[in-house]
Design brief:
By secondary structure, the protein is mainly beta. It has one domain: Pnp Oxidase, Chain A. A hairpin with an 8-residue loop joins β5 and β6. The longest helix is centred in the middle third of the chain and has 9 residues. It is globular. The chain starts with 15 loop residues before the first strand and ends with a strand.
Length: 149
């Protein structure tokens, strides 16, 4: 019979932290990073089943911030205008104090590039947010802490 899991062990995103190039980003609202395999469809003789072949993989993610600062906007756009593509390091952590047993996840992603930069956005009557999409080579992921059974 499987072991029962108490609801308090479910990690609460309220306890997430984000560091960009070593700087704590207090206004983070949401963070995600995903690795996606790129595949080619493979059809084999004497088989009606469709299969696939892993060719490579790619990483992408998104950061949503409460609109508090203009942090980094101007510098990134200026770098792009000069033909430079700055890279950054992200460290993201999730450490819920109510999740017993020291359950925490922490990951470092190096060589992060940014796909776009919002110049300005707002909506009347709404709290401001900034969304930042990014990409990375999955070979540059370092799993610092993981949650094990």
């Amino acid at each position: 019979m499987p072991k029962e899991i108490e609801g308090r062990r479910v990690i609460n995103g309220k306890w997430g932290k984000l560091y960009l190039d070593g700087e704590y980003i207090a206004e983070v609202q949401a963070f995600s990073a995903t690795v996606t395999p790129n595949r080619e469809e493979i059809s084999m003789v004497q088989s009606m089943g469709q299969d696939s072949k892993l060719l490579n993989y790619e990483g992408e993610g998104e950061i949503t911030l409460h609109k508090v600062f203009s942090r980094g906007k101007e510098a990134l756009i200026e770098a792009w205008s000069e033909g430079r593509d700055p890279r950054s390091k992200i460290v993201a952590a999730l450490d819920d104090p109510d999740a017993e047993g020291g359950q925490a996840e922490r990951v470092a992603i190096d060589g992060v590039w940014f796909n776009e930069q919002q110049v300005l956005n707002f909506e009347s009557g709404e709290a401001g947010t900034r969304e930042i999409s990014f990409g990375f080579n999955p070979d540059n992921i370092d799993f610092l802490d993981t949650i094990d059974a």
